[in-house]
Amino acid sequence: MATIYAISDIHGYYNQMIDSLKNVDLKNEENKIIFLGDYVDGGNDSCRVLYYIKELHENHADQVITLLGNHDEIFLHWLYSQVDDFRLLFQEPDICTFKSFLTVEEYREIFDTFQPLTYSYEKVSEALKEAIKKKHGDLLKWLLNISKQLRYFETDQQIFVHAGILEEAEDLWKHGTPKEYFTQKYPAETGYFYKDIIVGHISSVEIANKKEYLGKVYWDGESHFYIDGTVEKSGNIPVLKYDTETKRYSSFEKDTIYGEWREIYVDV
Question: What is one GO cellular-component annotation here (predicted)?
């Protein structure tokens, strides 16, 4: 019996990610976990999150699937594009992401060196990029490799994707979906599709329009499972679990008093 897990929108919250991953069993080599992207931007540990997932991926190459989200694409675009968006240097959550790759001393040294100069924003941005690339070359090589792969993972039963697909294309969705849809689609869709679609990107609270879904998985009663738990507000990163034998979906909720996890079915 194999199990498929899915987790999304970690957004630099390392401790919450580790806590949620306690519910994932990779000792059974038939089991898989799909990371749906948005590893960075939000919490203070984006770099640490990436290193952990990279190591997990390398240790369980056939079991760990890594997809990119729109925030990961923005980060890579900033690092490698010739067109620089200086606004990222002064806005959250991007600045938290940059800081996570450098020590406080390294970060301050760059600003102290270049900020007084003419065109300082451009020079600071370029210096930050070079410092991050030099210090984390292997990590960025791994992340760039992911960026060259498909933005979705498909099984006989499901489509796992960060933001969604062009559902009106039906069984031609792989060819009909614009590339940006996979990581940027908005608004969310609900209703029937011929495969189950497991998605992050948009808060489950927003789609359900019910506050009680904060930090939880939302199933629309048809074919869509939304698993972005808005970790910055809920403190929780939901994990969706699919049993390939029973074909049932479940997730995990943490007892607020005792701090213990309990598994609950979400497809009811």
Answer: cytoplasm
